Amino acid sequence: MKQHQALAPYLSVHAYGLGDLLEEQARCRPNLTAIVDGAHRFSFQEVDDRVNRLATVLRNHGVGRGDRVLWLGQNSFRVLEALLASARVGAIMCPANWRWSSEEIAFALDDFDPKVVLWQNKDVGEINRGARDAWRPDSNWICHDGCEGETNYEDLIATADPTREFDPVETSKPLLAIYTAGFSGKPGAALLSHESLLIVSWLNQVGQGVTETSGYLVSGPMFHVGVLMGALATFMAGGRNAFVARVDPEELLQIVESEKLTHAFIAPPTIEQMRAINKDGKYDVSSIFRDAQMSDYRIPLVMPGSSPMMSAPGGYGQTEIGGLTITKWMGGEAAGRPSPFLQAKIADDNGEELPIGETGEILARGPLVMCGYWNRPEENARRVVNGWHRTNDLGRRLEDGSIVFVGPKTTMIKSGIENIYPAEVEACLKTHDGVADVCVIGVPDPTWDQNVKAIIVRKPGSEHGPEDFIEHCRQRLASYKKPKIVEFAQALPRGPGGVVDRAKVDQAYGGGGYPKVG
Known about the structure:
Layout: H1 2-6, H2 18-28, E1 33-37, E2 40-43, H3 44-60, E3 68-72, H4 77-89, E4 92-95, H5 102-112, E5 116-119, H6 125-135, E6 140-143, H7 153-159, E7 174-183, E8 186-193, H8 194-207, E9 215-218, H9 225-237, E10 240-243, H10 249-259, E11 263-265, H11 268-277, E12 301-302, H12 308-311, E13 315-318, E14 323-327, E15 337-338, E16 343-347, E17 360-365, E18 372-373, H13 377-382, E19 384-385, E20 388-397, E21 403-408, E22 413-415, E23 418-420, H14 422-429, E24 435-445, E25 449-458, H15 466-474, E26 485-488, H16 502-509
Parallel strand pairs: 1-10, 3-4, 3-5, 5-6, 9-10, 9-11, 25-26
Antiparallel strand pairs: 1-2, 7-8, 8-18, 11-12, 13-14, 14-15, 16-17, 17-20, 19-20, 20-21, 22-23, 24-25
Helix pairs in contact: 2-3, 2-4, 3-4, 3-7, 5-6, 8-9, 10-11
């Protein structure tokens, strides 16, 4: 015991959070450009000064350890500043979805209960003001892009004390909150710690081949962990982050050319628009693409072809485990292997590990896993089993130890005593050469509770009958998982994001009787 007490002076030596990383960048890379955003260009030393000032502003508005800061706006370098300043005061920062409706904003304000809201006037000012007036008109709202008659971000920064002041942090404490898809009828804010963000930043730095000479185009929405991790990887490596408020294909071409950017987050539809604009090679994009038509584009995470992640693309992840943290570039097949900072296993409903080849829920543990959901004690208790995080996703282990991602465990069919996951049956049917699209549902049965029914869109020219598809599953799955009923459709209903609308499929094809599942 005395020996342990003698080590106490070193406890503070090991405290290291995201705010400490900025301090070190300002020390070892003071004059390298860290941020580009329109007319704004800041070195790491200048960012450090601005973050010190913003931390003072937050303290002056009552923000302390464990308090929340909410961002209601589009992409901006100030999102990064707000995250770093929150790290310095021990707060939790959430970049909200700027496309949220007034009802969704109202929900987040009540749920997250921020001490300070950083908001945007351009494009979304009316809905933000309405949300403030309906919530707490006298609360601390700071307009980041300038607005007459409002408390303005840059005005506060200019007059704030730049003295660096932050206590050593516990790296396991939450820093970033990201609202994820709804469970039990409402979304939840997954809380990621300093430690998780630092590790994932390093993983992305290595995987995407980011160095201090790299430039990252932050064109994807910063309320997604995949985009934030690219930005943080670049920040960690000492590279340049170039921000755009929202996606404009010509603006992206212009900034790639002018800044000679090397990495980006660009969605496929935007690439097609960029190709149309650049059909005559108007813009030089050679710093990031092979040619003017961007023919080497493969995935939204754009990076050099020589990077480990591009050499072996693929993986599995979710916000709750720090993003893409089971990856093909780590080795193996299918989704690949977990990073060295994550344990994963395939388990049954009781959390017991299943044999190789069997489908079950992907469980994870380690410093990358979230600290839990904000303000969701019941869900947090439900999502942990025997010290492991339930991902609510299905997978299986291959003989070489790799993990196959099967699909979400969002709907379960109960046939007798057996649990059947539509995602697994759909994955099997999609390997049939006659299937263009498929949705598997449960239909009520007086004897078995439910039967498995497959709604299949056949490929043009396919004349396969129902039995062909049933037999295909019988040969590849446990017999009880195969469809008993097959019906054909011309198309499946889909939601705005392109995902099959299962509720509409159920309604149209007799689905129902589902058990309650986690």
